């Protein structure tokens, strides 16, 4: 049914559209002995009898055009127009047929000058070939383009391509000549005219520095003088291939910045680079020559993750870090930042952490302190790790219960963190009391009448993306019943009550002890006070002068009449 409807529609359109007489194919003009020779080929029309081929002329492209001549020979394909002064003239042609109600089409309008020069946009180096790209000539009579190479002996034609072609690939060019050879383009018409030869262009060279010794970055530079001969450049993009792999984009730069930096090079890699210049208005992309470099650098120190730290009973520190080993590190410093202090400890010979790391720090570590490592290599490059803080436990209570409060394990890393409460047995073994805690406090109501109950907290950290658990123990903190002792966590020589003016353990009954020892240290690890007498207290003095207010670390140890070794350590605040 649709086909039946279409036939009347086509008949209607045919009846409405006027008949047209095709124009001659105006090929070109050429200047010859004071005249202009116009050349065309005829296009036949069967609408009626041929009458003439009309030639119109003007001195300007926009007209007005007047009839120059009417040629009555239907086979004529040339006409000479005298032009002794060499004036620029413009022509077009049309047929006249004895065909009523018809429209005669006009040919292209050509002038009597040679074709306009085509614009060579850029030269690109691609897969070892040279690729030329140009814009079509503005002259409609152009029938082809001649690709020319500039050599020391002159200009040599390489090839001729059709008038609608705008690119040409030159193969077989030696690698060392890809950017030294020069090219230009000329337009030609059917009359043998050729345009003035265009701008001379060549491929852009690429050079590079770095990738050696301490200079880990590779800096590549595209030949700025060559880029200046191309059409305007909007941006540059760096492409890098590693060890023969594919080229991958690695950053961009403005079109007026010919230098790009690659900072991901690793020692021993074979890297190749090229730069793509994107022309303004998306005209095209010109690729530079390839620059290759064998990387031979002093491997820089790389930052490593510190998962946590615990302070061991003997005062040492145990760190767990990831497996990165900075073999090129020449110095490692431990930075300790706390309330009112900032210490640094040079750790000679510690060049490659990787896993467990045990240190002894003379200054000691207090609650609230954070620790981080700084490593440097022989090139002066430095990394600083994340900061970590150990867990500090304070236990209070008994006989019915013990309340435990602790500071968090701090490492600033993504991952999961939980805590386990451990009961310290007299033989030193650890029994879990509560597991998988997220809070920083716990009340143990499982007391069995023990005169002393000691605890530790175990922090359990699993880094994001891993299944390994890193565990860190807190200090040991004990609580005593009525038959044992109590140690205050603060005292002041200026207190109104006698019991608050000194620091020592207070026993409910006269103790029967062996190997009693109480030691007090300042935050830098200096011994301030020691006693082997349970009834001798520290009055807050250091030698013959008063110790300043602040936090002090104490350790207490003794053996009971039953032969059990008791230890306790913690922090006491001295107030003035």
How would you describe the overall organization of this protein?
It comes from Neolewinella aquimaris. Keywords: Signal. Residues 1-19 form the signal peptide. InterPro entries: Ig-like_fold (IPR013783). This is Gliding motility-associated-like protein. The chain contains two helices and 49 strands. Helix content is 4%, strand content 51%. Strands 19, 20, 22, 23 and 24 form a five-stranded antiparallel β-sheet that branches. With 576 residues, it is mostly beta strands. 28% of the residues are buried. It is rod-shaped, with a radius of gyration of 47 Å. The chain folds into six domains: 19-111, Sandwich (Immunoglobulin-like); 120-202, Immunoglobulin-like, CATH 2.60.40.10; 206-297, Immunoglobulin-like; 306-384, Immunoglobulin-like; 393-480, Immunoglobulins (Immunoglobulin-like, Sandwich), CATH 2.60.40.10; 485-574, Immunoglobulin-like, CATH 2.60.40. The model is unreliable at 1-17 (pLDDT under 50). Strand 35 (415-424) and strand 36 form a beta hairpin.
The CATH architecture name of the largest domain reads: Sandwich
- Unreliable spans are 1-17
CATH level-3 fold name of the largest domain: Immunoglobulin-like
Shape: rod-shaped
Biggest β-sheet description = 5 strands, antiparallel
> Multimeric state of these chains?
single chain
Specify the CATH homologous superfamily of the largest domain. Answer: Immunoglobulins
> Beta-strand percentage?
over 45%
Kindly, what is the distance between the CA atoms of the first and last residues, rounded to a whole number of angstroms?
109 Å
The domain tally reads 6
Structural class: mainly beta
CATH class of the largest domain: Mainly Beta
The mean pLDDT is 87
Q: Which bin fits the share of residues in helices?
A: under 10%
Cα-based radius of gyration, to the nearest Å:
47 Å
Number of helices: 2
Tell how many strands the DSSP assignment holds.
49
Organism: Neolewinella aquimaris
Keywords: Signal
InterPro entries: Ig-like_fold (IPR013783)
Signal peptide: 1-19
């Amino acid at each position: 049914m649709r086909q039946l409807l279409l036939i009347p529609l086509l008949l209607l359109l045919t009846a409405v559209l006027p008949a047209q007489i095709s124009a001659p194919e105006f090929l070109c003009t050429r200047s010859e002995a004071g005249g202009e020779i116009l050349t065309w080929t005829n296009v036949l029309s069967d609408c009626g009898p041929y009458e003439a081929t009309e030639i119109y002329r003007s001195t300007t492209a926009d007209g007005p055009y007047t009839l120059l001549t009417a040629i009555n020979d239907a086979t004529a394909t040339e006409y000479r127009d005298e032009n002794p002064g060499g004036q620029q003239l413009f022509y077009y042609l049309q047929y006249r047929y004895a065909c009523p109600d018809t429209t005669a089409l006009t040919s292209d309008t050509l002038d009597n000058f040679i074709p306009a020069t085509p614009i060579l946009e850029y030269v690109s180096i691609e897969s070892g070939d040279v690729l030329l790209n140009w814009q079509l000539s503005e002259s409609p009579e152009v029938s082809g383009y001649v690709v020319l190479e500039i050599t020391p002996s002159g200009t040599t034609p390489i090839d001729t391509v059709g008038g609608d072609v705008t690119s040409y690939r030159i193969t077989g060019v030696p690698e060392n000549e890809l950017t030294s050879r020069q090219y230009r383009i000329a337009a030609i018409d059917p009359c043998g005219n050729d345009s003035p030869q265009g701008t001379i262009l060549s491929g852009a060279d690429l050079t590079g520095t770095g990738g050696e010794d301490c200079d880990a970055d590779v800096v590549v530079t595209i030949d700025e003088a060559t880029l200046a001969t191309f059409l305007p450049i909007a941006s540059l993009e760096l492409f890098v291939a590693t060890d023969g792999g594919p080229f991958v984009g690695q950053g961009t730069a403005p079109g007026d910045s010919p230098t790009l930096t690659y900072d991901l090079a690793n020692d021993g890699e074979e890297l190749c680079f090229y730069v793509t210049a994107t022309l303004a208005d998306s005209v095209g992309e010109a690729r530079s020559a390839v620059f290759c470099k064998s990387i031979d650098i002093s491997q820089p120190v790389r930052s490593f993750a510190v998962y946590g730290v615990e302070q061991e009973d003997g005062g040492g520190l145990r760190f767990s870090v990831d497996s990165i080993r900075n073999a090129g590190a020449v110095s490692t410093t431990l930075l300790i930042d706390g309330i009112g202090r900032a210490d640094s400890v040079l750790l000679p010979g510690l060049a490659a952490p990787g896993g467990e790391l045990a240190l002894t720090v003379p200054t000691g570590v207090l609650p609230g302190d954070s620790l981080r490592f700084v490593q440097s290599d022989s090139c002066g490059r430095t990394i600083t790790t994340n900061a970590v803080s150990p867990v500090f436990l304070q236990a209070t209570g008994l006989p019915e219960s013990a309340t435990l409060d602790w500071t968090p394990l701090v490492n600033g890393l993504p991952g999961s963190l939980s805590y386990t409460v451990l009961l310290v047995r007299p033989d030193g073994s650890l029994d879990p009391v509560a597991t998988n805690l997220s809070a920083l406090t716990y009340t143990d109501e499982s007391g069995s009448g023990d005169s002393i109950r000691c605890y530790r907290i175990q922090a359990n950290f699993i880094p994001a993306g891993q299944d390994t658990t890193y565990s860190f123990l807190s200090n040991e903190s004990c609580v005593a019943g009525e038959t044992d002792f109590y140690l205050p966590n603060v005292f002041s020589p200026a207190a109104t009550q006698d019991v608050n003016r000194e620091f020592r353990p207070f026993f409910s009954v006269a103790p029967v002890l062996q190997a009693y020892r109480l030691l007090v240290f300042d935050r830098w690890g200096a011994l301030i006070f020691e006693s082997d007498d349970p009834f001798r207290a520290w009055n807050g003095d250091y030698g013959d002068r008063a110790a300043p207010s602040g936090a002090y670390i104490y350790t207490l140890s003794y053996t009971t009449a039953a032969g059990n070794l008791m230890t306790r350590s913690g922090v006491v605040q001295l107030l003035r």
